[in-house]
Amino acid sequence: MRHVAIVLGAVILAGTLAGQSVGQNKTYTPPRTPDGQPDLQGVWTNVTITPLERPANLAGKEFFTPAEARQFEKDTVDRNNADRRDGGAQADLSRAYNDAWYDRGTKVVETLRTSLVIDPPDGRIPRVAAQGAAAGPGGFGRPPEGPEDRSLPERCILWPTAGPPMMPSFYNNNYQIVQSPGYVTILVEMIHDARIIPIDSRPHVDSKVRQWMGDSRGHWDGNTLVVETTNFNDKTRFQRSGANMHLVERFTRTAPDTVTYEFTVTDPSAFARPWTAQIPMKRTDGPIIEYACNEGNYAMEGMLAGARADEKKAAAKK
Amino acid sequence: MGKGFVTLLGLAGLLAAVAPAWAHHAFAAEFDAQKPVKLKGTVAKVEFINPHSWIHIDVKDTDGKVTRWMVEGGSPNALFRRGVTKDALPQGTEISVDGYQAKDGSNRANGRDITFADGRKLFVGGSNPDEQPGK
Predict the structure, then answer these.
(1) What is the distance between the alpha carbons of residues B9 and A309, in angstroms, rounded to a whole number?
(2) Cβ neighbours of A297 in B, within 8 Å
(3) Helix, strand or coil for residue A91?
(4) pTM for this structure?
């Protein structure tokens, strides 16, 4: 019964915080670095099976009950299990390899929210009309003739969820935050990028300068680190946003083992209004393991060889 | 190029609906769903590398001829974090591989389902094969 009361309390608390920044409402006081910054340092994981957007069958339901959460976890883990062999050869091949290689998590977020998107309240990304994208081998409408015709993650350039903004994926959801006077650095395990964020008040680089991970600037709002990122290039896409994306991330240490991470995305060319997601980052064991992606990317050769084999097969049929 | 990225994300969404797992890259671009293979062999070399690991095995046919196959697995990082290392798969270990052959007909396959010769799953539990569940 006490358990129920606590969970109920958490749900009510979480409910009142919907759409607001968590950091300013919590009473937890984080430790400080030697130079007096709120201490966000450590190795953190954002792994969760809570979906980014609320599934259609949960429309109108902002929070799970604890029993619903356990059922959702069980169903999701069963569905995700890569050891299953049903669904035909294509589905089987797309599952790639045994489940032991994956690390997708088994739990929903502690708030029991049904989506990571907390605003708009329907938990859905407010997309403007979809832009058409031609499907084809490699997604480029023609067979890939070289590595540049394959996607960014396949080329080891950027992982779609590695950020900014940073979202959970199916493995390697690990981040190390290091603070030094004037800078916060976030080392991302997936494709091993380090984002170095100045926290003085210097302006963004010139708008003509466009970068894969944008240009980040940080400042402290009480105990919350606020990071604003602009200057993305036109080759990346985050939920259909690209060069126009304006991103604000908020990092708040809300418990000894938790950094509550929120991000707000604004881009009128892709979204009808700004939207916000909230993802807890939980303390985990280090170290971050180097993801030396290009060095071991034998599969690039395999995919290009596959495209040539497809062409030969097509030519033989003529 | 940007358009391609959108398509990949779209594809990921699609796979999430019908087949929830997908890997660092599209396995369907590399391997042929029409060419399922079952291999039994001994481990010659293990490359625990990113983005994906490769297990090299020697497969002996009925005439005693040995062929080297390369078998693609996943990122080793999650395994390391669970304490699994290359010691889990010493040279000479007999394993069974159920997968799909490379589209170009080379001796490569994905390790769709890899087990020890006695059927135990690989990499479940700690790095010592003697500690595998069921043994």
Answers:
(1) 25
(2) 51
(3) helix
(4) 0.85
- CB-based contact (8 Å) between A77 and chain B? no
To the nearest whole Å, the CA of B32 is away from the closest chain A CA by 8
Chain A residue with minimum CA distance to B48 = A296
ipTM of this complex prediction, to 2 decimal places: 0.85
* Residue given tokens 């400080």 in the structure block: A32
B66–chain A nearest CA distance, Å? 23
CATH code matching the domain that covers B28-131, chosen among 2.40.50.1010, 3.10.580.10, 3.40.50.300, 1.10.645.10: 2.40.50.1010
Measure the CA–CA gap between B25 and A157, rounded to whole angstroms: 12
Neighbours of A193 (CB within 10 A): 18
Rounded to a whole number of angstroms, the distance from the CA of A138 to the nearest CA of chain B is 7
Per-residue tens of pLDDT for chain B, all 135 residues? 333 333 343 333 333 333 334 567 788 999 999 999 999 999 999 999 999 999 999 999 999 999 999 999 999 999 999 899 988 999 999 999 999 999 999 999 999 999 999 999 988 755 444 444 433
Domain ranges of chain A: 2-124+137-297+306-317
User: CA–CA distance from A117 to each of A11, A16, A122 (Å)?
Assistant: 16, 15, 8
Chain A CB contacts of B49 under 8 Å are 292, 295-296
